[in-house]
Automatic annotation (TrEMBL):
Keywords annotated in UniProt: Signal
Annotated InterPro entries: CHP02001
The protein, known as: TorF family putative porin
Source organism of the structure: Brevundimonas nasdae
Any matching Pfam family: Gcw_chp
Phylogenetic classification of the source organism: Bacteria, Pseudomonadati, Pseudomonadota, Alphaproteobacteria, Caulobacterales
NCBIfam families associated with the record: gcw_chp
Signal sequence interval, chain numbering: 1-26
Length: 225
């Protein structure tokens, strides 16, 4: 776990240094906390279709740099208890697109002896707004996905549409590939309703084309401050 976290931190620090942004990092801090009936990641349940409590902390500078941490309980049926993610990167706008380049380190608490799920990914994404609609694409690359030293690439297309001040609908289609390993396609579709200016309710359907893995209808409640 330490190796992955240190590598992610080093990559983010290097990006700050290269772009000359390290000296003054004044910015905004945001917090979020939420609950869901099923934590689904890239079409697959991470909690054995059970309840999850999640929360995170985000820091963003006026210059576009950001960093954060996020955690959730998990259940892999092997004693693994929690997932802790650390991430950082840079957001900017160019050629009419919003760009996001970053690093994500995933670490897991309570994994059985001899098993390491810890890994990290590098991501590059771009999105563009067309009135109330936004479309985007993101690539995630890992040289040691799930800690077993096999490369992986996840490519995702997303779309969102703002219906009103309180309602938005969105969906995504993703393709997860492993070298070596089993590749699969996943998709989701849902909507978010703003209960207040800080509290949102999301209803979403997830599915994938892997044999033996069920689809899921997920209800999530999230507060952001």
């Amino acid at each position: 776990m330490r190796a992955h976290v240190l590598l992610a931190a080093s990559a983010v620090s290097a990006a700050f240094a290269l772009m000359g942004a390290a000296p003054a990092l004044a910015g905004d801090v945001a917090f979020n906390i939420g609950a869901t009936n099923n934590y689904v990641f890239r079409g697959l349940t991470q909690t054995d279709e059970k309840f999850a409590v999640q929360g995170g902390l985000d820091f963003a500078t006026e210059g576009g740099f950001y960093a954060g941490a996020w955690a959730s309980n998990v259940d892999f049926k092997d004693g693994t208890d929690a997932e802790i993610d650390l991430y950082g990167g840079y957001r900017t706008e160019a050629a009419g697109f919003a760009w996001d380049v970053g690093v994500i380190a995933y670490s897991y608490v309570g994994a059985p002896s001899g098993v390491s799920y810890n890994n990290y990914e590098v991501k590059v994404g771009a999105s563009r707004a067309f009135g109330p609609a936004t479309v985007g694409a993101t690539l995630y690359y890992s040289p040691d996905s799930w800690g077993v030293e096999n490369e992986s690439l996840y490519a995702e297309l997303t779309a969102a549409y703002t219906v009103s001040d309180k309602i938005a609908v969105s969906g995504a289609v993703g393709r997860q590939t492993f070298d070596p390993g089993s590749d699969y396609t996943t998709w989701n579709l849902g909507g978010t309703y703003a209960l207040t200016d800080k509290l949102g309710l999301d209803l979403r359907y997830y599915d994938n084309n892997l044999k033996g893995y069920d689809d899921a209808f997920v209800v999530s409640l999230k507060a952001a401050f």
